[in-house]
């Protein structure tokens, strides 16, 4: 990369008209200043390790011609160029990491430690979380089924069903039995008595 940057300084005037290398050459400390400038650019290159070296070279070479706002090739200018291009390469780095990631089978003891750590983070254990999720799902299902029953109840009428003893004498009544007709209301009451849900 260092030799590439030196070549960029040699080509800079021909490509852009910027005579930066000339000023380094006429300055008594120019060689030292050029080296400091190159070291600064190399530090910027190290700040973007996810941009491959060949891509860094390509960015520098292209931007030397495209960027119309820079006055010198230095670390600040190269940082600006890399900062504009970083998102493309950052996303590619994440994609590569996903591809390169391999699953490792953890021992039972390690899995237990992971579960304990997760439970401390969550405030409850993972099995508790699963049970809680099942409970929520069950409640939701019951709630939805209950809504359907209530909707069905609205389409039914309330009936009063007389309760008779074995001889056929009326011994009482059950009010507000919801059914489509009186016969169905009577069957509902008989089933409740058979099951033991209703005591006479």
Note down, in words, how this protein is organized.
The N and C termini lie far apart (98 Å). The chain has three domains: 2-100, no CATH class; 111-145, no CATH class; 156-195, no CATH class. It has helices at 2-16, 20-26, 30-47, 53-66, 75-100, 108-122, 126-155, 182-195; strands at 157-164, 170-179. The protein has a two-stranded antiparallel sheet with strand order 1-2. The protein is mainly alpha-helical and 200 residues long. α2 packs across α3 (30-47) and α3 (30-47) runs parallel beside α5.
Write a brief structural summary.
This protein is mainly alpha-helical and 200 residues long. It is built from eight helices and two strands; from the N terminus they run αααααααββα.
Q: What topology, given as strand order, has the largest sheet? A: 1-2
Termini Cα gap:
98 Å
Average pLDDT, all residues: 77
Give the helix/strand class.
Answer: mainly alpha
**Oligomer, anyone?**
single chain
Number of beta strands: 2
Kindly give the count of domains: 3
pLDDT < 50 stretches: 148-152
Radius of gyration: 41 Å
Estimated helix fraction: 55-70%
User: Helix-strand pattern, N to C?
Assistant: HHHHHHHEEH
Give the helix/strand layout.
Layout (H helix, E strand, L loop, with lengths): L1 H15 L3 H7 L3 H18 L5 H14 L8 H26 L7 H15 L3 H30 L1 E8 L5 E10 L2 H14 L5
Antiparallel strand pairs: 1-2
Helix pairs in contact: 1-4, 2-3, 3-5, 4-5
Keywords:
200 residues; mainly alpha; two-stranded antiparallel sheet; 8 helices; 2 strands; 70% helix
